[in-house]
Specification:
The chain is mainly alpha-helical. The chain is 63% helix and 0% strand.
Length: 164
């Protein structure tokens, strides 16, 4: 029994010493999520995780800083606030939905609704105008009937007799 316990302990120690030591890395999803909320500061105006410059030092340093802060246990909101404090609100990929920035969120929808209302009322007016006969219409007189009779005669001769 003692031999089995010693063997088990030896195997456990052997496994512990031979097992590779892997440092705890930042959660890739958290780093990617935070990178998606920030704009790269190299001047490309791309989102940080979509910056495609081959040697973008700004992207590398910002991503490494995010990874360090996640490893230290900081929350995503705290990390984003750190970058806002450092670079200002222009570092955010979308403006916050408060204050004056709320206009950027609401104005496009208001413009679409206003444009739809203008089109609706314009179409309604045009349709209404098309259904009513203008008031200045002159009644058909005898000369108009004479012209109609001549046109009908010429058209009947054209269809039956050909061109000439």
């Amino acid at each position: 029994m003692i031999k089995s316990k010693v063997c088990l302990l030896a195997v456990l120690l052997l496994v512990l010493f031979l097992a590779p030591v892997v440092p705890v890395k930042a959660d890739a999803m958290t780093v990617d999520y935070i990178s998606g909320q920030l704009i790269c500061q190299c001047g490309c105006t791309s989102v940080l995780n979509n910056c495609t410059h081959a040697e973008c030092h700004s992207r590398e340093s910002m991503t490494n800083l995010i990874r360090q802060k996640v490893d230290q246990g900081e929350s995503a909101a705290a990390i984003i606030q750190y970058f806002v404090a450092q670079y200002g609100e222009q570092v955010l990929s979308s403006p916050p939905k408060k204050g004056f920035n709320l206009t950027a969120w609401l104005l496009p929808f208001a413009a679409i609704m206003a444009g739809g209302a203008v089109i609706y009322f314009a179409l309604k007016k045009w349709v209404k105008r098309g259904t009513h006969q203008p008031e200045g219409v002159v009644p058909v007189n005898e000369t108009d009937k004479e012209y109609e009779r001549r046109v009908e005669n010429e058209l009947s001769g054209f269809t039956h007799g050909g061109f000439r």
